[in-house]
Amino acid sequence: GITAVTPLGLFRIIKPYLARIDNIHCLEEYLYSKEIGVAGQVDCIAEYRGKLSVIDFKTSTKQRDEDYNYGNFLQTSAYAKMFEEIYPDKKIEQTVILAACEDGFVQEWIHGSDSIAKHQELFYKHTKEFFERNSIGFPKKVILASKPRIAANPKTPSQFEVCGAAISTRFSFSFISGMVPSTFQPNIFNSNLAKN
Predict the structure, then answer these.
(1) Contact at 8 Å (CB) between 138 and 131?
(2) What's the rounded Cα separation, in Å, for the pair 92 and 86?
(3) What one-character-per-residue DSSP string does 88-106 give?
(4) Which of 28, 52, 80, 110 has the most CB atoms at less than 10 Å from its CB?
(5) What is the pLDDT of residues 25-52, one digit of tens each?
(6) Contact at 8 Å (CB) between 174 and 183?
């Protein structure tokens, strides 16, 4: 494989796919769901080939498969839920994951409304399990504070504190119970979740 691919090289690989993006609604925007009690930072919400889409950009040393992207599929469907909750007059038509690979390929995964609904159910299930496992309690009502906060613990970089609850970055959407954090971990989500 190709080694030491520069960010500029990866940008050049993915550039033709960027031409399919139009009418950007959000770019690196913080979104949240009061209903589920999670928040995160979406890469992009825009029209992709004419359809309103959650778009997630990835880089990879090699090509990915469906199993590898499981967490990404959940992530983008969760962003669709958050966006629609905040903007109820707008409907996400599809989710798009674009992965620029160091071997020179770009992988594109597009999921329509049926897949989004399926992944949202799985995300909801994992979120509920997470709250239960960490004795947080699944939120019935989330009250948003005027001055959100997040405090990192430098001694344990794999943990961060949100609204008084320590959450593992392996499930790195920020969980909200009283406040929406103003800043989040840079790695919004990963695929370390079990599929069942």
Answers:
(1) yes
(2) 12
(3) TT----EEEEEEEETTS-E
(4) 80
(5) 999 998 988 888 888 889 999 999 999 9
(6) no
Structure-token pair, residue 33: 């769901």
7: left (phi over 0), alpha (psi -120 to 50) or beta: alpha
Taking the CB of residue 185, how many other CB atoms lie within 10 A of it?
19
> Residue 192 is encoded by which pair of tokens?
């370390």
> How many residues are there in the chain?
196
pLDDT tens readout for residues 117-165: 999 999 888 888 877 777 666 554 443 332 233 333 333 333 323 332 3
User: Vertex 131, ends 125 and 134: CA angle to 5°?
Assistant: 135
SS3 170: helix
Which single residue is written with the structure tokens 């504070």? Answer: 145
